[in-house]
Design goal:
Shape: elongated
Largest sheet: 6 strands, mixed
CATH superfamily of the largest domain: Zn peptidases
Low-confidence stretches: 1-18
Strand order of the largest sheet: 1-2-6-3-7-16
Helix content: 25-40%
Oligomer: single chain
Number of helices: 10
Mean pLDDT: 93
Length: 429
C-alpha cells in the first residue's frame, strides 16, 4: 500500500492548486488537513473492507460498526447501536451524532453491509495498480462510509463542527432488508429532525449527482389451471393450464407497460407444473410435473421499479386488470409487496446539486450535473427524501459493485473526500 500512497497525493494536488483562489481560508485548511490524514484514511478503508459484512453475517456487520464507533468517538460524536426487532433477523444500525444550534442540520446516510455473504469467496483489500484497489464492498459502500468519516474528521480537527447538528446513520441491512417497515422506523424518525439528507452510495465520477432514485416493489403472480391429460389442452374440458395463463399475463405486461419511461418490471423466477413451491427466504423453487399433464399451478415472482407513487399505483392497477382476463379453465391472482419508495426529483434536490456543482468548480474539478432520474435504483435515502431536500451519489467511485472484483478508484478518492468536505462546510455555515 505505501508504495502507491505518495503517488495518490500527487494526483490530487494540481487540481487544488489551480483553484486555490476560489476557496476561503478555512476551506484551504480543510484541504491541507485531508492530505495530512490521507494515509490513515486509506488504512481505515483497508481495515473495514477486510471484514466480511454480508447482510446475513450479523457479527461481521457489528464488527464494522465497532470500528466506526471507535473512530467517531475520537472526533467528538456520541455513538450508539440501534437494534432491530428479532423477527427482522438483521444486525441493526450504527448512529453517530453531534448537536448544535448553527447551520443546516445534516443527516448523512451510509450502510455497513455488503452483498458478499460469509460463505462466498472472500476478496480482501488489494491494490491492483497505483489508481485502483479491489475488495468486497469497496465502492458499495465502505468507501463512501470512510469518505464521510474523513470529511468530518478534518472539520473536527479544525474546530469547524462546533455547535453544529450532524447525524451519521449507517444502516446494517441496506443490501438485504429483513423488513423495511420495522428496520427503518428509527432511521425515518431521526431523519425528520434534520434539514437535509446526503447519501454516500457510489459516485459516478465528478460530473454527476443523484437527485432522484427509482423505488422498488415486489410482486407474486399465481395461476391455476385444470389438471388433465395433455392431449386435451386448449379443449373445452382441459382448458389452457396454469403455465399458458402465466405466459399470457407476462406477455401482456410487456406489451402494455414496457414502453413507459422509468418503469420496469422483471419476472425473476417462474415455477410451474402439477405441484410447485417457492421458498421466499432462500429463493429456492421446486416443481413436480410431466410433459403429458396440463399444468395445475404456476408461481412467478418479480420486481417493479418506478419513479413516484403515482407511477407505481398506475402500473399495479394495469397489472391487476391484465391478470383478471383469464384463459379458459384458468384463474390468476397477483399480490404486491412494498420495498423501497422512490426519491422523486424536486427543486430542492436540484438546488443541492447546484451547490455541489459550485463546490466542484471552486476546487477545479468541473461542474456537476444532475443525473437521469431513471439511472439509479432504490436506496435508503428514498425512505426520507419526501421529508427534506436530498442528494445521493456522493461516495467513492469505482466499478463492478455487487460482483467479484469490485473496485474503488483510488485516484479520485482523495478528491471526492475534499469535494464532500467543502460541501459539508458550506452547508453548515
Amino acid at each position: 500500500m505505501k508504495r502507491f500512497f505518495f503517488a495518490l497525493l500527487l494526483v490530487s494536488t494540481p487540481l487544488f492548486s489551480f483553484a486555490q483562489q476560489q476557496l476561503s481560508k478555512d476551506e484551504k485548511k480543510l484541504i491541507e488537513r485531508i492530505d495530512k490524514n490521507y494515509q490513515e484514511t486509506v488504512q481505515l478503508l483497508e481495515e473495514v473492507i477486510n471484514i466480511n459484512s454480508g447482510s446475513l453475517n450479523l457479527e461481521g456487520v457489528r464488527e464494522v460498526g465497532r470500528i466506526f464507533e471507535r473512530e467517531f468517538q475520537k472526533i467528538g460524536f456520541q455513538t450508539e447501536w440501534v437494534d432491530v426487532p428479532a423477527e427482522v433477523k438483521r444486525a441493526g444500525h450504527f448512529v453517530a451524532t453531534r448537536k448544535g444550534t448553527k447551520g443546516k442540520k445534516l443527516f448523512l446516510i451510509g450502510h455497513l453491509d455488503t452483498v458478499f455473504e460469509k460463505d462466498m469467496p472472500f476478496t480482501p483489500f488489494t491494490w491492483l495498480n497505483d489508481s485502483t484497489a479491489t475488495g468486497q464492498g469497496a465502492n458499495d459502500m465502505k468507501g463512501g462510509d470512510i469518505l464521510v468519516l474523513a470529511s468530518l474528521k478534518a472539520m473536527h480537527e479544525l474546530g469547524l463542527l462546533e455547535d453544529r447538528t450532524i447525524t451519521v446513520y449507517f444502516n446494517g441491512d441496506e443490501e438485504s432488508t429483513g423488513n423495511g417497515t420495522l428496520s427503518r422506523q428509527d432511521f425515518i424518525a431521526r431523519a425528520k429532525t434534520h434539514d437535509l439528507a446526503l447519501a454516500y452510495e457510489t459516485a459516478q465520477g465528478f460530473g454527476g449527482a443523484t437527485v432522484a432514485r427509482r423505488g422498488a416493489s415486489g410482486w407474486t403472480l399465481k395461476t391455476t389451471g385444470k389438471q388433465g391429460h395433455s392431449s386435451g389442452v386448449f379443449g373445452q374440458n382441459a382448458g389452457y393450464g396454469a403455465i399458458y395463463e402465466a405466459a399470457r399475463i407476462l406477455n401482456e405486461f410487456r406489451e402494455a407497460l414496457a414502453g413507459e419511461k422509468y418503469l420496469t418490471f422483471n419476472p425473476g423466477q417462474i415455477v410451474g407444473g402439477s405441484d410447485v413451491n417457492i421458498n421466499s427466504s432462500t429463493g429456492a423453487g421446486s416443481s413436480l410435473g410431466k410433459t403429458n399433464i396440463v399444468a395445475r399451478e404456476t408461481i412467478v415472482t418479480g420486481d417493479l421499479r418506478f419513479l413516484g407513487e403515482a407511477q407505481k399505483e398506475a402500473a399495479r392497477a394495469k397489472m391487476r386488470e391484465i391478470v383478471a382476463k383469464n384463459l379458459h379453465q384458468t384463474d390468476a391472482e397477483i399480490t404486491f409487496s412494498n420495498g423501497l419508495p422512490s426519491m422523486e426529483p424536486t427543486p430542492g434536490n436540484y438546488a443541492l446539486a447546484e451547490t455541489l456543482s459550485q463546490v466542484s468548480q471552486d476546487l477545479g474539478y468541473g461542474p456537476v450535473k444532475p443525473g437521469d432520474p431513471g439511472s439509479r435504483g432504490a436506496g435508503d435515502i428514498s425512505f426520507v427524501a419526501s421529508f427534506m431536500d436530498s442528494l445521493d451519489g456522493l461516495g467513492a467511485s469505482g466499478s463492478g459493485a455487487h460482483a467479484p472484483g469490485e473496485t474503488i478508484n483510488m485516484k479520485q478518492f482523495p478528491a471526492l473526500i475534499k469535494r464532500n468536505t467543502i460541501l459539508l462546510y458550506r452547508l453548515t455555515r
